[in-house]
Amino acid sequence: MAILKVARMGHPVLRQQCHAIDPQQITGPAVQGLIRDMFETMAEYSGVGLAAPQVHQPVRLAIAGGEADEEGHPEFRVLINPEITVLDDADRLGMYEGCLSVPGMRGWVERPASVEVKAYDEKGELQEFALEGFPAVVIQHECDHLDGVLYVDRIEDMTKFAFEPEAERFLDLAGEEAAAEEG
Ligand code: ZN
């Protein structure tokens, strides 16, 4: 187990198209070790998600949170070679997003509010599920990383891009429709 170094915006690994993982390799030691290290790294930095390129591995693997089990404990999904289908592009959800690769910043991004996802899980089983609301936003943020896209690319109003203390002071970070996300 290891806490990995997180690549920050400007590092080219965050801007490349990541490679698919051979599904046969998912249960092997290399992928399983990377998943374990990514969970440890995400917990260390209190992320709600983490994508492999953020730890310098340009492969199509991400962890996404934002869901909770019946007792309210956070749940995370491992996504390998994920494919996202937007259910209704007109139904959008905006929130202040953050990213462990863009530390100390928040920016307002609007995304489709519901998506269908097809991805292999950590056991190498193909899963299909639908998400809406906050978990749908988290998963889109993480899957963007696999295509070299950062949330800052999706900010339309740059007056809503700020350092965290200023965002807390001057922007409606805690507003009812402005949950924050960091991944
Ligand atoms: Zn991110």
List keywords for this structure.
183 residues, alpha+beta, Peptide Deformylase, five-stranded antiparallel sheet, four-stranded mixed sheet, 9 strands, globular, binds zinc ion
Bound ligands: zinc ion
> Residue ranges: pLDDT <50 for 5 or more in a row?
none
| H/E element sequence | HEEEEEEEHEHE
Secondary structure tally, helices: 3
Taking the alpha carbons of the first and last residues, their distance comes to: 20 Å
Mean pLDDT: 94
Radius of gyration from the alpha-carbon trace, in angstroms: 16 Å
How would you name the CATH homologous superfamily? Answer: Peptide deformylase
Number of distinct beta strands: 9
Into how many domains do the coordinates divide? Answer: 1
- Strand order, main sheet: write it out: 1-2-3-6-7
Tertiary shape = globular
Largest beta-sheet details = 5 strands, antiparallel
Q: What is the name of the CATH architecture?
A: Alpha-Beta Complex
Protein described:
The chain is α+β, with helices and mostly antiparallel strands and 183 residues long. It has one domain: Peptide Deformylase (Alpha-Beta Complex). It contains three helices and nine strands, in the order αβββββββαβαβ. It has a five-stranded antiparallel sheet, sandwiched between helices. A hairpin with a 5-residue loop joins strand 6 and strand 7 (126-132). It is globular. The mean pLDDT is 94. Bound molecules: zinc ion (ZN). Zinc ion binds next to helix 2.
